[in-house]
Amino acid sequence: MRFGVYFFYLLVVWALDNLGDNDTHTEYDLHKRLFQQYNSNLIPRRMTSSDPFHVGIELYLMSIDEINELRQTIAITAFLEIEWTDSLLIWEPLEYSNVTSINAKVKDIWTPDIVLRRTLDKQSDIIDADGHAVIYSDGRIIMWPYGRFTVSCKILIGQFPFDEQTCLFDFMSWTNPSS
């Protein structure tokens, strides 16, 4: 009988101790751990610097704002979905109250320096430093910048209204090599 009471006491102490550990690992603790020594100036890769770093970009058209035959341009409003993996921002959700994603300010994380080639607008970084990003526990980062994009585009209207136009919106890194 005494063994059963002692065993029950140990089980209760162990359970209370483990409950206390889970309470201390909050989303606040996660942010603190992830960003304590994080350097947003370095490309976040685990492998050697010669390995390619993959950044995915998808464009979602919201509207065609202007087609200018005289200037041979097209202007659209769109948002981009930009995704990459940051190997320095990975965590185990079970250690942090099952938190599987967090939001972060863009200025606090490394972001690719993406610009639109052949734009007629001011050549500037597409990603707004005041924006936000979603960081997933596997290190995947997704952000959705939006704006108006204007590019040169050969516009042929010889068969109006049955013309088809193909305009290229080519995004690239401004300072990093294409690899």
UniProtKB/TrEMBL annotation:
Main localization (coarse): membrane
N-terminal signal peptide: 1-15
Species assigned in the record: Dreissena polymorpha (Zebra mussel)
Protein name per the record: Neurotransmitter-gated ion-channel ligand-binding domain-containing protein
Matches recorded under Pfam families: Neur_chan_LBD
Domain Neurotransmitter-gated ion-channel ligand-binding positions: 28-177
Alphabetical UniProt keywords: Ion channel, Ion transport, Membrane, Signal, Transport
Keyword Signal: yes
Gene Ontology cellular component annotations, sorted alphabetically: membrane
Family: Belongs to the ligand-gated ion channel (TC 1.A.9) family.
Cellular compartments annotated: Membrane
InterPro entries: Neur_chan_lig-bd, Neur_chan_lig-bd_sf, Neur_channel, Neurotransmitter_ion_chnl_CS
A Gene Ontology molecular function term of the record: extracellular ligand-gated monoatomic ion channel activity
Membrane topology: Multi-pass membrane protein
SUPFAM superfamilies named in the record: Nicotinic receptor ligand binding domain-like
